[in-house]
Specification:
The protein is mainly beta. The chain folds into three domains: 52-145, Immunoglobulin-like, CATH 2.60.40.10; 156-234, Sandwich (Immunoglobulin-like); 241-377, Jelly Rolls (Sandwich), CATH 2.60.120. The chain is built from no helices and 25 strands. It has strands at residues 52-62, 68-77, 84-92, 98-104, 108-115, 122-131, 140-145, 156-158, 162-164, 169-173, 181-186, 189-190, 193-194, 200-203, 207-216, 222-234, 241-242, 248-251, 273-275, 281-299, 314-320, 327-332, 339-358, 367-369, 371-377. The strands form six sheets. Strands 17, 18, 20, 21, 22, 23 and 25 form a seven-stranded antiparallel beta sheet that branches. A five-stranded mixed beta sheet has the order 9-16-15-11-13, with no helix packed on it. A four-stranded antiparallel beta sheet has the order 4-3-6-7, with no helix packed on it. The N and C termini lie far apart (76 Å). The mean pLDDT is 93. This is PKD domain-containing protein. InterPro entries: EndoD-like_D2, FA58C, Galactose-bd-like_sf, Ig-like_fold, PKD/Chitinase_dom, PKD_dom, PKD_dom_sf. Residues 152-238 form the PKD domain. It comes from Lactococcus lactis subsp. lactis. Residues 226-377 form the F5/8 type C domain.
Length: 384
């Protein structure tokens, strides 16, 4: 960086409309651009430099895989109205370079969606004060430690959990990126073991069967998870019943009567439940009495003709027998689909609660659900 000063005293009292710069070099230049950082006109008086202290990370949030983070930085400053211009925030890299992240006119800055570099365990930030003369003052640094994302973490779901003898079930791996090898153990299934990422299996006898997944990272470290009696196999096929249709619902809020909670269970795709405002939004469906349920279908914004950007990104599904004690059976993150189908272990429940923890793909906090179906096996049906 080069700083050049010019005496413009001879132009006193005149209006300066243009300033031109001519740059020459006594050597061949192998670059194609020169960046002009700042141009300042002063009266020649010295401007006091600014000094910072006590920089810290006051809040942090990481994406589940630990590859993206958001950080709130704060610091103390001796700046005043006579010398303060701005604060510049940089990311300091291991190779000695630094990257401009943004500027702030207060003693705080939020670093949004910062991507973690390969093999990076910590990131250092520098806050540089700039006075009204464009001069850098005493900067401060702070750093954040990234979570260990090298550990394997097992997770999976099934595309359906109520099947007939011989019907195929796909086990869908949802383990983290550090998991590179897989071992499945499926009670009573054919095949009973698999090393595929997303195996298909079937069963030749009626009953309830457990599934275990073990995952291994590049260092050979393992993690496993077992879902007990996840798959229910019955002798004869049954048509799943939508227990939610036209049932009673409760919601945390709604925009108006035409977008109220009951619109999400009226069987129509031209009506919706919509709630606005900050925070999470939820809808609780009372299906009337305790029933065997195993699947929830949701039609999001796109299914109703709206932009895919309005589809619910993150949501949970909980079930309860008494509307007091709840069990989480589904936890979805980064959904982009307009229609979702979430299967879980067949369980008797009367209440189903869906909570939109991230209602859209972006910053919009309005949830839009056009239809919800709670599917299961009627108790009167033959089978388990």
């Amino acid at each position: 960086m080069v700083k050049i000063s010019f005496d413009v005293k001879k132009f006193e009292g005149q209006t300066i409309k243009k300033i031109g710069l001519s740059i020459k070099s006594d050597q061949a230049m192998d670059f194609k651009a020169i960046n002009l950082g700042e141009m300042t006109l002063t009266n020649g008086q010295k401007v006091a430099p600014i000094a910072l202290s006590d920089a810290k990370v006051t809040d942090e949030a990481f994406e589940e895989e630990g590859t993206v983070g958001g950080f709130r930085l704060s610091w103390k400053s001796d700046a005043n109205k006579n010398n303060f211009s701005t604060y510049e925030i940089y990311q300091l890299n291991d190779d000695g370079s630094k990257e401009f992240l943004g500027a702030s006119n207060i003693n705080a800055f939020f670093v949004n969606a910062l991507k973690r570099g390969k093999n990076i365990n910590s990131t250092k930030f520098e806050i540089v004060p700039i006075n009204k003369a464009g001069e850098s003052g005493h900067s401060v640094t702070t750093s954040v430690k990234w979570p260990d994302n090298s550990l394997a973490k097992a997770a999976f779901v099934a595309d359906k959990t109520l099947v007939t003898i011989g019907e195929k079930v796909t086990l869908m791996n949802q383990s983290n990126l550090a998991s590179v090898k897989y071992k499945w153990d499926i009670d009573g299934a054919s095949p009973a073991t698999s090393t595929e990422k997303n195996p298909q299996v079937s069963f030749d006898k009626a009953g309830s069967y457990s599934v275990k997944l073990t995952v291994i990272n590049e260092k050979g470290q393992e993690d496993s998870v077992t879902q007990t009696e996840l798959i229910t196999v019955i002798d004869q096929p049954v048509e799943l019943t939508n227990f939610a249709l036209n049932q009673s619902v409760q919601v945390d809020s709604f925009t108006n009567e035409s977008e109220s909670g009951p619109k999400a269970v009226d069987g129509k795709l031209n009506t919706k439940w919509c709630a606005v405002g900050p925070g999470k939004h939820n809808i609780t469906i009372d299906i009337g009495k305790s029933e065997k349920i195993n699947q929830v279908l949701i039609d999001h914004a796109q299914k109703g003709g709206e932009s895919p950007d309005m589809n619910t990104s993150d949501y949970t599904i909980e079930i309860s027998k008494d509307n007091q004690n709840w069990t989480e059976v589904v936890n979805v993150k980064k959904n982009k689909l307009g229609e979702t189908k979430d299967s879980f272990k067949q369980t008797e429940a009367r209440y189903v609660r869906i909570t939109a923890t991230k209602p859209t793909q972006g910053a919009d906090t309005a949830v839009r659900l056009y239809e919800i179906q709670v599917l299961g096996q009627k108790k009167a049906d033959k089978g388990l």
